[in-house]
Design goal:
Layout lengths: L7 E6 L6 H10 L4 E3 H11 L1 H11 L12 H8 L3 H24 L6 E5 L14 E6 L2 H11 L5 H9 L4 H7 L2 E4 L6 H21 L2
Parallel strand pairs: 1-3, 1-4, 2-3, 4-5
Helix pairs in contact: 2-3, 2-5, 3-5
Amino acid sequence: MKSNNPSLQIGITGGIGSGKSLVSTIFSALGIPVYDADLRAKWVMNIHPVLKTDIITAFGHSAFTTANELNRQYLAKQVFNNSDKVALLNSLVHPRVAEDYTAWVEAHVNYPYLLKEAALLYEAGSYQLLDKIIVVFAPIEIRIQRIQKRDPQRTIEEIQAIMAKQLPEEEKLQRADFIVYNDESRLLIPQILNLHQQFLSMASVHHATR
């Protein structure tokens, strides 16, 4: 079911290391609001009183530090390679993030279109509420190099474990409405400027039908 909100809503996703945050930053520089679902999820987990209680009930008081902040390392260890615990955490967090996103969209109705960046846009099912999806693509070898440079503490095994939890690139590309190639063989900004113009045109039609 697509959104009935007056703003055109575009999802942006891609595998870890693909560069989706960089693409989002360029859209943001063009004046387009970007909802970073991963960052907002961490924020919501820190400030939502009911969600905090639910997390403590499910994972223990160590889920938050003595300063009452989310203990991300502890939670990561709890859910790592445990699909049941991942599912439990997601069942608690995703509905609260969905509420936060809805409120965010309502606060940005005066923009022609909005972007929602999420690593697990397809996996979490939230793509169904968006009008179009961009997939940022880069070959796995380049992605691994980027991750090792950005997060030198991660081992190859950890990187591969994260990738294994994400939808295969081939399936993402098949389901994409638009693809941005961040593979170091073509310029990024011209691709984004082209999409920006397309979205502005689409937004005028979208608004007219609302």
